[in-house]
Specification:
InterPro entries: PRTase-like, PRTase_dom
Structural class: alpha/beta
Strand content: 15-25%
Number of helices: 7
GO molecular function: glycosyltransferase activity
Helix content: 25-40%
Keywords: Glycosyltransferase, Transferase
Protein name: Phosphoribosyltransferase
Number of strands: 8
Length: 217
Amino acid sequence: MRFRSRKQAGQELAVRLLEWASSGDLANVTVLALPRGGVPVGAEIARALAVPLDVLVVRKIGVPGSPEVGIGAIVGDDPPVFDRTGLQAMHLSEDKLGPDVARERVELHRRERLYRGGRAAPDISGHGVVVVDDGLATGITARAALRHLRRGGPLRLTLAVPVCGHATAAALRDEADDVISLLQPQHLRSVGEWYEDFHQVTDEEVLHALRELHPAG
């Protein structure tokens, strides 16, 4: 099974979350999508639940020479979250990755300024938060996001993705109150292989979704 698009994946994920909402397990919810790819998925969930959509900008720190493979991630001005087992296996150190972290931090703040336009991050204290991405391979970006959000005191922290590696989903249950994934393959090489259309989401698509679904427009 593959998803036709992020939109269709978000609609299917929304059905699962609507079941939770009807049972009372989700209340006073904000959907936080990880841009860019998580935004079209999160937009469908926010529409279905009739709740606000916002973004949490996370930047992956890639393996030198293989930037698509995540070895770490950053959120805001938080210290990097690294896969320490991976660092050791690849004979890498945090110091060696310092320039990569600095470069990604610049891009992270650029996107925050663009997407937020001066708006403050949402107050999630006492709220249900649904964190959405289009899929997870190593899960390092989701781990960084969940740890960042946990410090904000959410009432319930739910991770919702269309596809996630089985072992990754199991590991992330230590970080989230709930992990919802429609597909959990034993071996997930890349998220894109689970979509027919996996085009690169643009800043314009992110801004359009936020204008439509964020209360501040």
